[in-house]
Each structure stands twice: as structure tokens, then as C-alpha cells.
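pasting for the record
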Amino acid sequence: MNKAVNDGVWSGSWVAERLGVRLEGDDELTGMLGLALRRNPKRAHLLVSNVLGKHVPQSPSVVYGAGFALGRRVRELLGAQEAARAVVLGYAETATGLGHSVADGVGLAPYLHSTRRPVAGVARAGGFEESHSHATSHLLLPEDPALLVGDGPLVLVDDEFSTGNTVLNTVRDLHERYPRRRYVVVALVDMRSAADAGRLAEFAGEIGARVDLVAAATGTVRLPEGVLEKGQELVARYEAESAGAGGPSSAAPSGPVAQFPAPPNSGVAAEADREGNAPGSGLAAEADREGNAPGSGLAAEADREGNPPSSGLAVEADQESNPPGARGTARSAPTGPQPEGERTHPHVTRVDLHWPLGLPDGGRHGFTPVHRGHLEDALPAMTARLAEALPADARSVLVLGFEELMYAPLRLARELEQIADGVEVRYSTTTRSPVLAVDDPGYAIRTRLVFPAHDTPADGPGERYAYNVAGAGFDAVIAVVDSVADTPELHAPDGLLARLSAHAPQVLLAVVPSYVPGPLALPERHPMLPEPLRGPAFSSYAPEEVGWLLQDLSDVTLEAPTEEREEAIQSGGAHYAESLPVEYQPSEQYQELFQTALAESAARLAQAAGAVTEIVLAERSPRPVLVSLARAGTPVGVLMRRWAQFRHGLELPHYAVSIVRGRGIDANALRWLAAHHDPRDVVFVDGWTGKGAITRELTAAIREFEASDGIIGFDPEIAVLADPGSCVRTYGTREDYLIPSACLNSTVSGLISRTVLRADLVGPNDYHGAKFYRELAGADVSVAFLDAVSARFAEVVDAVDATAKELLSGDREPTWEGWAAVERISEEYGIHDVNLVKPGVGETTRVLLRRVPWKILARAGAGADLDHVRLLAEQRGVPVEEVAELPYTCVGLIHPKYTRGATGADGRAVNH
């Protein structure tokens, strides 16, 4: 059995000794957790759970029992009556099986886990993000939309509760849609710091609900100063040493196992000895000579046959001469949807589980108590088929699950453990997470198998991993995947099955049918979607400048005082897109500031607009269809259209569509675009980036649309005038400077309000809505703004050419520096919600015009770009705090604990 403490050596000691990391807390903590290292800009160390069944092969009874026991504690906490009304929600990918097990322990609770796999025909019921990652969107895809509706307790299950950010983001998102009175957070370990410990209670008070926490063990991680830099250096050194020794690295999966001990007599072994390791164990040498794990017997086999074991030939030769004693229903045959004439590896055997028809493979779309009963009935027969297929002499067997598919393999493994006498059964799963492997008893990740993704993931191809499998001495491995993952990549020479075959004499493949809620009929919608709205009937722009794929809600009263909107939004009582702020009417002094800013920045804006248009024409499409994100993107879309006409004589189509944070893009607008244009020509346009929330929202929404409608080709990469957050590749500049259109609301955006999405006004076949403020025509500067910038086109032609050439030849990969900065500011100022931190001049201006600002952070020495910000802040009584090192020119902070009392009787902000 793999344990965190093995023969007196804790599997976190290697990291602890080198980095000074300490675990403090319950006595069982070091028995539940080991430590490893990973390349991560925020946290180099990784807590490796020993009872989760993800990275460390473990007894399935231990894994299932840990989750089930937590579920029983939740049942006791809630009481039988409330437990019967509960819904359990687990996190993809690591806690999908744990959440299932907790739901079993709760008893009658239905279960749902988040997923990163869009499914055609299944509408999203919600979603949320892990703030520490760049591509972290979780989808909620219940077959029954009512699963998340109701006032019963919601039980959220994750393997580790560290800062609480992910859980709070989830509750905030779900409470906004489906408010309830009680939440229970469940984790194997509660590792919050003292600073984070009180946030749960504070958050509960903010949303007006009870939030409890249940954990199997409690403690914290003590990190010495400089641990991140030291950890990163250590990872880099070991990866470099591995590459220098000829071993496969995380970046080059050329062999079946990536291990990081250096071979003896290489000089690296001496360094390891100085660090306190025992390089003379011989294990590293054996692994490095052939790229195989020690103890697998493959090196000797390769020598006898003259073949490298990673080719699979040595194992195949062994099987020909000594066929294993397969029993019962097993057969060696081509498996999966392979090309005609190709066969799977002869030593890989497919086992037909006879999975019950209609039984979900897990909780991706919901798993009810009825489903649980069907699974319990079918488990004995399915497990018997696996047992019959095992070699007669197998004494050590691993059941290996697949990423989010954790529960079905776990239940099969646990049943096998109970019926297979004399067989030691272990369970773990493959994963997306890259972790450094070091072959040392004091390190949690001893070996690593690297193989390509085999389920055609929505985010494209990439590496996947199986840890602590190579060299573990398993007589057989049972790989359990769903049918979506039974692809040619699974059976490829460098695929998972080949990697496993290099380290186990027998590999069995069991495929669980991927459950798809049916029928897959697309929702009914109007055969003809309305044509775009155009000026002068809707907006003050000329009709050829932009077509609005919106519905006109001008006759509906939607405005509410800013303070009331903020209170409703932050309390979870309303979404920001369900109402509109009262339009700010600029004072004469503010209008003068706008005109001054426009005169000073027009040439700079013209250059940026020209540069981003040239990049779009060069890289995206010679005749792009510009689709601006209403409304901040619309003036930029018009400017890009004007540049294309001025410089190239092109009349580009331009439309404006609605996108709403947390609810995605207007799907009906996409359907109209797909019916009238090639989606591959569509380029989404916005004004600027802040922290990149809309960039991420659009990416998730396009994937969801592809899955639901089967329409592909839309590229979610946004083109922006300015990208200070480093979130996109297509931009005119990355400087954070004043774009004057950010200074005003509708009066610089064609007199159009921000977009509205409210269920009683926007039906499933309607465009999102907006208002046309005709009554503000006397203050409208929309066309004047465009004309002022366009008038500078001729003088910036050479500068545009030089800028575009430099950008096209340079490195424009996003670094997401803005998101990292926002997370840091959120924590430093005690806000703990990235949505309340608005970086950049444009977003700060929006905070002052539309929200309840708390304070403004300004980069020390910022000049005229912030004159209008300082004026607005003075008018609203908001302090401006100068900060020496700020990645943006300024950052606006929304009041983190807003109530009506957060502003005085005059509506001005009150400092707390």
C-alpha cells in the first residue's frame, strides 16, 4: 500500500528538507498528505493526497471510505430531514469521485459534478472559475435543469480547502441564480491559513446564508520566506538535469516514464548526495539506461530480444512465448475506433462490462439515488467479468480511472478488492496536472507516465499523466475510460495503453458508455431571426456603421439608483445585467476634460485602431466580419471599419452583440451571424482588456455554443484597442492609457445603454436587449468622437505600418499579468473577490460612473490620463491612493461589503 508515511519516511520529507515547508495540524495530516513540486507561478509545492485516488495508488476501500465517512458527517450535521433535501456538487477533475462518495454517505442526495467537457445538446445551468488558473472554466450541465433549483442544502465537495477562493466563487455564482439558505463545504483536508479562516463566516453574512465546513483533517502549510522562488529553481534544476541525462521531461514525453533522479557517476548524483539523497540505490541507473522504471523487468527483457521496451516489442514477444492465463470473457482483439487493419497491442485485452443501458457513467449530468441503486445491482456482475479476465497468477492489480471518470472505476475497484481473494487491488486515475517526479521514498510522486490526451478535449491536444504507476510492480492494470476517450490516440504507439503495457505484463481495457442526455433535439426557435437594428431608428450611428443584434427595450423602465443596484448585485438578489444604472450626466467641467483628453489622445487612438486592424487583416481574414461586444467595443469596431475603408478601400460588415459576464454571449446573435456569414471570418472586438474576465467568458461561451448547436468556426480571440492585462494576442497597444470613449456612457456609444438580460424580457428566441436614449441627443458626442480620431488617420499611416510590423513579428502570447495583479490586489486589500477589482483607466472610470466605488489606486506619477478619474473621485467622495508599483495606471475597487450604509445620506462613499 502506498502511504504518505512508508517505513518511517514521510513522502513530504524531500520537499520539506529542501524548501523548509512544514505541515502543522492534526496528527493524521502527514498520513493523509505528501508533498511534491510543480512548475507554477503562484505555488511551487503541491499537496498530494494519499486517500483521494488521483496521484497515489491506494486501496479503493480507503478512498471510497474516506468520502463516504465525510458524507455521513454531513448527514449528521444536517439531520435526516434536511439531508433528504440536499444536493451534492463535486469539482472537476480531482474531486468528482470524492463527491460521489460523499453523496453516497449523505444517503438520498442527488449528485452533480462540474466538468470541462462541453456536451452537444446540453444547456449550461451555471459555471464558475478557479481564480488561480488561466483556463479554468467549470461547466454545470445537469440533465434536469431543476436539479439545482430549490432551497435544500447545497453540499460542495473538494479534495482540499486551502484559500477558499474556488468555493466562494462557486457559491457566489450559484447563489445568484439559485439562492438557498444553507451551504456545506466538504474537504478531505482544511488547510486554510489563519488569515483565510474567518472569510467563510464573513461571506455567509454577506449572502445571508449559513455556510458550514466539514473536513477529515485540519492543519496549515508553513512556508518560509522565498519558498516560491526556491521551489521554482529546484523544479527547473531537476528538469534540466533530467533532460541532460537523456531522460524524458515534462516537455518531451519521448519515453514511457519521466523520472528525475540522476544516473550515478554523472556529477548530478554527487549533487543529489550533497542534498541528502542516496544516489547509490541503483534504481535511477536502471531507469535511465532504458527509460523504464526499476523493478519492471523490462530492461532485461529488452536485452534478450534486442528491442527497447518502450516499443512494446519486448512485451509482445514475451506474450507470444508465455501467454498469460486469461480467464473467462476476456479476448485479445482490436479495440476502439481504430483505422481498418490496425490492431491494438496484443497484450491489451478488452473486457465488456455489460454496463446497464441508460445508466450515467458519472455525475457530469446528474446522478440520482435511482441511478445509484441500478449501479449497486450491476456492480457484482461487471466486477466478475473483470476478475475472470485477470491472469490466474495476478497478485497486484491497479484499476486506473480517467480524469473526470473517477467514480465508476472506484466502485469497480472496491468491488474487485472484496471478491478477488489473494489479490491486492489499488486504485488511481490519470490527470491533466503536470507534476515533477523524483524517485525518492521521501517524495510523493515517484514516477510519471506521459501520454497524449485521448478524448479530443475542447481545449485542444496536450499531455496527460499517470503517477506512481511505473515501477510499482503491478501484475495487471485495468484501464477504465468512457467511450468518448476510446480513440485512436488511446491505442497509439505513444498512447496510454502502450505506456501501461511497458510497465505491466497485462493491461485490460474496460470502456464505460459516455452518457448523453437525450434526445438531442435542438430547442425550437424562430425560423427567421430578426434583422439587426440600425440608426437612426436605433442609435445615433449611421446605418452602415453598425448593425445591432439586439432587441429595443427603450419603452421599459430598467434604471435603478447605483446604490440599490450594488446592494442587490452583491447580495445575490440580482444580476448586474437585469437592470441599468441611471445614466451619468457629465458636468460642464467633466465635459471639458473629455474634450481635452480626446484632443490629446486622438492620434494615439488612431494609431492603435490602425495597428489592430492591420493585424486582423494579416492574420485573421482578408475580409473580416467585425462583431463588437456591446457597448464598449462598438466605437472601436466602427473605428476599425473606418480604417479598413480609409487604407484598403474595404467595406467591412460590423455588428454589435451582447455578452454578459456569468451568462455568456447571445446565442441567437451567433445563430444569425452563422446564417449570414462564415463564422471563420468573424472577429470579436472590444475596447480594452482589464483582468481578462470577458476574454475567458467568450472562450467558454463559444465552446458551449459549438457543443449545443454544432456550429463551429467562431474564434473566441478578441481584438482590442488596448491590452494592458496581457489577455489577448490581437491588440493595438498594451499601454494602459485613457481611451476617451471610456469616460462617458451612452453619449459616446451611439446613445445605446449597456445590454440587458432578464428572463421576463428576453425569451429563449430573443436577442438580448438594450435601450436607445433618444432624449440625450443634445449631449451626444458619439459621432464627434469617431470623427476626431478618424481625422488623424492620414498622419499616423507610417506609425501604424511600423507598429503592425513590430507586433506581427514579435511575441504576443498573453501572459495574464493583469489577472495575477488583480488577484494580488484583491488579497492585499482584503476584498477576496476579483470581480470587485477593476483594473485600468477604462474599468476604473466605469466603477466611478456605474458602481459604488471604495477607493482608487493610482500609479505614482500618473499624469493627465487620470485627470477625469481624479475629478470623478472628488465628486463622489472617493479617496485616491497613490501606489509606487502598480502594473496599471490605475485600479478601481468596488466597495467589498456594500450596504446602503456604505454611502451617506448624500450618496457619497463613506470610508470604513
